């Protein structure tokens, strides 16, 4: 099992219930839509969130400091400089 | 210690300013020139408009803060990456495109040289500080995609560059490599 962290619209929070760490990236994105719609993420409840809200988001999978599995769903970050 | 910043736009220039307390020589690699529109979101001052960004930052740090710095006002390529980064003890990647980030990663992994990346989402809502072992360079949606026109993302850039500077300073003091996610709601160590 893994802790899922979702970053959306400038907010970032952990989902309180662990998810299967073998979930595919597509499954993680689908879960995230349902979690945000249902208000399962503290400070981030969007009832009418679009089905494709996380389609272009990145899924990172790391081990946390105590060895626990963590999954981060986050926006792409291609930038470092202004043009 | 020699710390080389690759790209001194919004992230690189601001983070470098926040590393001026370190006992280190700061090096800057950037081929671009300072434009008026950059003043709102980058650490450049009006007299630097028209100058090469690496050279301008070196002059500002030297003239205003007495900091020893080096400037390389060229585009980083396969041909010069070894020359520019060979003597670095730490490389800081603040480039704005996947191709350049991969070039820096490739060199630093082969040498090996410690490398930390900083990166920003297009809408200015989110950023990352991540050391190279866990970093994957995200592609732009299309080549030349711009962000932060007019400085609208400056608050997040400030938070992200302060976090990057903190991670650099922790590395210099204790060789720790701390990764962070940054959004306007806070900073999370990952």
Question: Could you list some keywords that capture this structure?
Answer:
A: 83 residues; alpha+beta; 1 helix; 4 strands; globular; B: Rossmann fold; 20% strand
The CATH homologous superfamily of chain B is named NAD(P)-binding Rossmann-like Domain
- Categorize the overall geometry of chain A: globular
Global outline of chain B: globular
- The strands making up the biggest β-sheet of chain B line up spatially as 3-2-1-4-5-6-7-8
Q: Strand-and-helix sequence of chain A, N→C?
A: EEHEE
According to CATH, what is the topology of chain B?
Rossmann fold
Instruction: Tell me the greatest interface.
Output: A-B, 23 and 50 residues
CATH architecture of chain B: 3-Layer(aba) Sandwich
What's the main sheet of chain B like? 8 strands, mixed
Percentage beta strand of chain B: 15-25%
Helical/strand content category of chain B: alpha/beta
Mean pLDDT level of chain A: 90
Spatial separation of the terminal alpha carbons of chain B: 27 Å
User: How far is it from the N-terminal to the C-terminal residue of chain A, by CA?
Assistant: 42 Å
Helical content of chain B (DSSP H or I, runs of 4+): 25-40%
Largest sheet of chain A: 4 strands, mixed
- Radius of gyration of chain B, CA atoms, in whole angstroms: 15 Å
Low-pLDDT runs of 5+ residues of chain A are none
* Total count of domains of chain A: 1
Average predicted local confidence, pLDDT of chain B: 92
How many H/I helices of chain B?
A: 5
